[in-house]
Design brief:
heterodimer; A: 4-stranded mixed sheet; B: 408 residues; Aspartate Aminotransferase, domain 1; 17% strand
Chain lengths: 151, 408
């Protein structure tokens, strides 16, 4: 199970079982539903910006997805709370590059922190979209789209 | 002592003897595509090395030999499904193309606005989408035969749907997501009484049971080579000759014509009318060898083997807490669709793969079936004649391990 431990680590399994920030947000400033047509998974991301519109005060999510998808949503919303919008966009780029195998978080400078847990995804090309669905939905939300798709 | 219901043919399939990370491959995705026996692989290799040439065009010996081999598959397939003539066997690139051929050529030429196409609730997208496209072109209407919670079609509801407006009934012989074996003979009889033609998607039946198109009353029967131990890139459409004769071409090009001038083109008779362009020559040859292989193993023996395995696997999976089988028809092919409480099918698929077990996870190109059962996706283990009880034991052990990971 050594490989399994790389992808399905305890933290990921825990965030799947007890997802953080798993609730709707009636007063969200941004919301977008992300859909993965390959597997039918969908995740809606809610975000609230502060008065300046520059900082993400709060984030939450709801929807259906696999363990990778739910844990990714849970960890993403946790990590971005209180962060500037610009940092969220930057982190999306780093996360995307990491799961595609274009960025090695052990050697290249990055701000991924806990999100490094998902580096095992790069070995499973069919699962990359599971890990990035929440991120695509967040980017869609920030771009004022109501829905977005991984395809 | 009673005789074992099981075949012992795993050794015929080279890939099934390989390992992943030191673990033997357990292949449980035959409903997606079957593995290939050595005889098929060798025959195709040999043909490329010794005998390859174009068909139905060359006057040289290489081409004449290739043509003989190519046409001999048509005869083998006709015998396999008890077609009344080789002329009823059309080569296509796969089951999907076969169904598109019926929809575009037959459907588009006979359907008028308000005519009805009857499909079932448990079809593969390949037997839904072509009909929707033709519906847009003709103004026809699509009606759906619903199914019960076991995945069996309600024939009473089907009877009510049939009227003189029904022109085409298109149903799969075996559901790829649920395993249901549909009562095609009865469905066809009722279709004919209403004046409709019967189109059968045979993708999941052709290599698992004896198929007799005349006995079934199928007017069209479609299947793929790659699901019957042959290569990808080849498929068959069986069509009743009197229907084929009236049908316009599906695609235009070389070899399907009698004479071409810029003013007017006349077409070949079936089946060549429907075979435009250089075909999948070596794939068709490989399919012929696959048919020989199927018949040497014996379709009745394959059906017996798979039925015994299905019963074994059903019992095994039903005994695991949290497993819910999706598709529990009384008459069922060797397909085990299931859910595991609290675990997404994609996680099941990836985790089983880490133990060398290949299953399918997802909607199986049957989203309406998933909608009927209220799930976005399922995990599916599908069996072939090369599978063993040990394969299913490995599957059950893998599922137990996943339960432990997700629920401890």
């Amino acid at each position: 199970m050594s490989q399994a431990n790389e992808l399905y680590q305890q933290v990921i399994l825990d965030h799947n079982r007890n997802p953080r920030n798993y609730h709707p947000m009636p007063d969200a400033t941004y919301a977008c539903q992300g859909y993965n047509p390959l597997c039918g998974d969908n995740i809606t991301i809610f975000a609230k910006a502060d008065a300046t519109g520059q900082t993400l005060e709060d984030l939450s999510f709801q929807g259906n997805g696999c363990a990778i998808c739910k844990a990714s949503s849970s960890l993403m919303t946790s990590q971005l709370k209180g962060k500037p919008v610009s940092e969220a966009r930057e982190l999306f780029q780093e996360f995307h590059a990491m799961v595609k195998g274009d960025l090695d978080p052990e050697t290249a400078p990055n701000h991924l922190g806990k999100l490094k847990l998902f580096q095992g995804v790069k070995e499973y090309s069919s699962r990359i979209k599971c890990a990035t669905l929440a991120w695509h939905a967040l980017m869609g939300a920030l771009d004022r789209k109501e829905t977005t798709s991984t395809e | 002592m009673s005789k074992s219901p099981y075949l012992d043919i795993k050794k015929d399939f080279p890939v099934l003897n390989r390992e992943f990370d030191g673990k033997p491959l357990v292949y449980l995705d035959t409903a997606a595509t079957s593995q290939k026996p050595t005889v098929v692989i060798d025959a195709m290799d040999h043909f490329y090395r010794e005998s390859y040439g174009t068909v139905r065009r060359g006057v040289y010996r290489l081409s004449e030999k290739a043509t003989q081999a190519y046409e001999s598959t048509r005869h083998k397939v006709a015998k396999l499904i008890n077609a009344s003539s080789d002329r009823e066997i059309i080569y296509t690139r796969g089951c999907t193309e076969s169904l598109n051929l019926v929809a575009y050529s037959y459907g588009r030429s006979v359907l008028k606005s308000g005519d009805e196409i009857i499909l079932s609730q448990i079809e593969h997208h390949a037997n839904i989408v072509p009909w929707q496209i033709v519906r847009e072109m003709t103004g026809a209407v699509i009606k759906i035969i619903p199914c019960n919670d076991r995945g069996e079609l309600f024939l009473e509801e089907y009877r009510k749907l049939l009227s003189p407006r029904a022109k085409i009934v298109a149903v799969n012989h075996v559901s790829n997501a649920l395993g249901t074996i549909n009562p095609i003979k009865e469905i066809a009889k009722l279709a004919h009484e209403a004046g409709a033609v019967m189109v059968v998607d045979g993708a999941q039946s052709i290599s698992h049971m004896t198929v007799d198109v005349q006995d079934l009353g199928a007017d069209f029967y479609a299947f793929s080579s790659h699901k019957m131990f042959g290569p990808t890139g080849a498929g068959i459409l069986y069509g009743r000759y009197d229907l084929l004769e009236k049908m316009p071409p599906f695609q235009g090009g070389g070899d399907m014509i009698r004479q071409v001038t810029f003013e007017k083109t006349t077409y070949q008779d079936p089946p060549h009318r429907f075979e435009a362009g250089t075909p999948s020559i070596v794939e068709v040859l490989g399919l012929g060898v696959a048919v020989d292989y199927l018949q040497s193993v014996g379709l009745d023996k394959i059906a017996g083997h798979e039925h015994a395995l299905l019963e074994y696997g059903t019992k095994l999976l039903s005994g695991i807490p949290g497993v819910r089988l999706i598709g529990t028809a009384e008459h069922k092919g060797a397909i085990l669709g299931f859910e595991l409480d609290g675990v997404h099918p994609h996680d099941i698929g990836t985790l089983l793969d880490m133990d060398g077990i290949a299953i399918r996870a997802g909607h199986h190109c049957a989203q309406p079936t998933m909608q009927r059962f209220g799930v976005p996706a399922t995990a599916r283990a599908s069996l072939g004649p090369y599978n063993t009880e040990a394969d299913l034991d490995a599957l059950a052990a893998g599922i137990q391990k996943i339960r432990g990971m997700f629920h401890h």
